[in-house]
Amino acid sequence: MRALALLLVLLSLPAQAQEIVRGPTRPQALAALAPQVDGVVRHVAVAEGERVRKGDLLLALDDALQQARIALAEAAAANEAELRQARVTLAEASAVLERTAAAAGRGAAGEWEVRQARARVELARAGVESAEEKRRLEARRLDVERAAAEQLLVRAPFDGIVTRLDVVAGATVSRADRLVTVADLSVLEAVLFLPASVWPRLRLGGTYTLDLAAPVDRPVEAVLRSVDPVLDAASGRFRAVFTIANPDLALPAGMEAALDLGALGR
């Protein structure tokens, strides 16, 4: 019903009015960020309106407990005592086997004693392998604890501007809370719903003039980035996205953009 009402309104407009199609502009990237875990905010590193680079720290949750876990994991990963002991045991067992084998060659030791000495070497070698594997596991555990610490940080997902900040240090937050919003305004997108009749006149990658509304009130060049290949059957329109270069961030997002269909030619 809504699409039908829109169609009737469009048909009732003068032909000249139907030549102008308007739509909103938006940032090319917009992210409302939440923490990956629940916790208490320890530090807020940015303010609204501040420019950030991808990977910049925006805020940090309290990490006292996690840092203690990292310290324990570091100590365990650095501990070589068990491995050294296993290597000494292997060296001693190997020496005993060598002496026993030599004694057996002289008839001073039996086959059973040689087998026992050889078994002790194998057990000692297994002890070394076990100690080495334990050290590798401790190193992996340290990596896991450090990754868990990184989850207590909220970082910028791309270059942009902090457009909204809804948190202060000391606040208790959850994964459902959207605390910081970052927008990339270096390129704006204008989303227009165009009539099917202009489809043949559009070219992906082509440059078109869009008239921006207040507070800009001037025309700009825009590039047609994408066209929805599925038309809306009720309205006979399709979605087109134009991009507007905004390297100096002089253009705000959210204003209206208008395309004069008459300027597209026939």
TrEMBL record:
Q: Which UniProt keywords apply?
A: Signal
A Gene Ontology term for the protein's cellular component: efflux pump complex
In its UniProt record, a GO molecular function of this protein is:
efflux transmembrane transporter activity
Q: Name one Pfam family in it.
A: BSH_RND
Multidrug resistance protein MdtA-like barrel-sandwich hybrid domain segment(s): 31-181
Signal peptide residues are 1-17
Checking InterPro entries in the record gives:
MdtA-like_BSH, RND_pump_MFP
* Superkingdom, taxonomy of origin: Bacteria
Answer whether the UniProt record assigns the keyword Signal to this protein.
yes
What is stated as this protein's family in its record?
Belongs to the membrane fusion protein (MFP) (TC 8.A.1) family.
Kindly provide the name given to this protein in its UniProt entry. Efflux RND transporter periplasmic adaptor subunit
Q: Which organism is it from?
A: Elioraea tepida
- Source organism lineage? Bacteria, Pseudomonadati, Pseudomonadota, Alphaproteobacteria, Acetobacterales
